[in-house]
């Protein structure tokens, strides 16, 4: 029974949650009124109460409790309680952002400062989850996810289903990336194809809303092919008018060593590639280096204030407004007060 009640209470959302805190002041108010009544009686001295006086005192106590309930109902109605699905729907208004996560082998390097997120891909995933929490707080923004190594794969199209996105991100494992991103027979040049990933991110955007779109690339920029394939991604983004914001992960000074089969490979953060991608597409470069990127703060400060699309065909579920029930109950109590005063 208790878990059911806790789940029911947890499902309630408030339009003005700060009003709920005012309920804590109600007991103090009525304790003060109770004491004032007691003081008035003490000033009268020892008075023998008749049965009618005892009934009046008990009646006053009951009406004091009823008045407390009345104010509680009014405050709850003002707070705007919502639960359950409504037949109405709201339009998702915000920006569109495609997350591009690098799962190439160099992202397995353990050169990050956070002991719980030692590898680069773990820090990238933690940053993506932080961004998701920030976006979810405001709502309306659509997010999509592209994973890549030698090849890109669209993990999630643009959506406002943040719980679905969170589930997908928690399942991402850089040590065992999806088969779709691993090198194929024709991918012998490099296992890191940033250009393909950016082109896939551009394709994942909704062409109906140009000017309200962004791409966020989380990578170490380390492409062993050294053929500047990433410039193809710059060209695709510039043609579509989509800025690419890049986040650099890893140590740019001391290379980390990876064991790939019988080979030892060194890798370090290549900031020049990521900075060039951001500059040539009109985006920002975030040099996180060995720290977990604070992309949630970045989104809140730099992207969220930008113009938002005014309409989308993706409807958001709306919770049912429940304040009317509290107002009705308060009105009934008011009617009882009125009848009492006659």
UniProtKB/TrEMBL annotation:
Signal peptide: none
Keyword tags: Cell membrane, Membrane, Transmembrane, Transmembrane helix
Transmembrane segment boundaries: 14-34, 63-83
Keyword ATP-binding set for record: no
VWFA domain mapped to chain residues: 96-310
PANTHER family (alphabetical): LEUCINE ZIPPER PROTEIN 4, SPORE GERMINATION PROTEIN
Name the record gives this protein: VWA domain-containing protein
Native source species: Thermogemmata fonticola
